[in-house]
Structures are given as C-alpha cells and as structure tokens.
Amino acid sequence: MRAKFETEYSPCNDSDKLGIAIETIGKLPINGLRHVAENGTCGWYIWCGEEFSDAPDFFKPLHVSHIGKYLPEIKPYLALPPGHRFLVADSYEDVWQDSELLGI
Q1: Which residues in the chain show pLDDT less than 70?
Q2: Whole-angstrom Cα distance, residue 16 to residue 65?
Q3: Residues with Cβ within 8 Å of residue 96, at least 6 apart in sequence
Q4: Of 31, 62, 69, 102, which one has the fewest beta carbons inside 10 Å?
C-alpha cells in the first residue's frame, strides 16, 4: 500500500479504536479520513454513502481488530498516515492527502 500511494506506512494497532458509522454500512462509496491519533484511537473515521453527518452519534467506536467483520476491503487503507482520506466503490479508488485533517 505504501509504495502504491507513496506515503509512509502507519498501521493502526488492533487494540486502537476507530469511529465507524455502522448504520451506513452497505452503501457506496466507502469513505475514510484519518486525524492524528489520540486517547486510544487511531484517528480513522469511516462511513459509507454520500451523506456525512455532524451528529454526535453518527460514529460509533470500534476496535481496529473488528473492522474485517464489517468492511474487510478497507483494511489496507488503515495503514495510510494521519492526514489522508480514501474513497472506494466497486472498481473506483481515490486516496489523497488533506492537510486540514492535521490542523495545518
């Protein structure tokens, strides 16, 4: 993955938590963005579909070790470093750096 996207390899620990919008699973595209890790989280927020919500209960905590149960296809993207986003759907894939996620 790192060679493909020319980024540093920054995997999450299985015991870290990410935020996932469980209710959106099954929709496309699959979206992810990574903030800097803090307080036992890896910084990832994952949701599916075109709609994003600022509602406080939109994302639920999930240990990284369980992501394969819900969205196994995104596991390789979780090694992208903080400040990155991804969007995948069927055969489409887009990965980019978003410095705003780092507060820059």
Answers
A1: 1-3
A2: 8
A3: 84, 85
A4: 69
